Predict the structure.
Amino acid sequence: MVKRVNNWIAEGKNIKIFTARVTHENEAIRYIHEWLVVQGLPALEVTNVKDFDMIELCDDRCVGVITNMGIPR
């Protein structure tokens, strides 16, 4: 995943870390940034807010559904 994220960054894509563990200016962001750097990534933007410009969300637990149908993909 680190390689994929670094490739996306090299392509100029806007990458964000999405987690429910933070709120705006939450102290957890500092720890997440530190962890990212140890993993070989820059201190990316960390948010808990989805936006309509998202084109992809990667998660190890989510299940995608067909839009407006609720049918798993």
Notes: The CA atoms of residues 18 and 58 lie 9 Å apart. The chain has two helices and two strands.
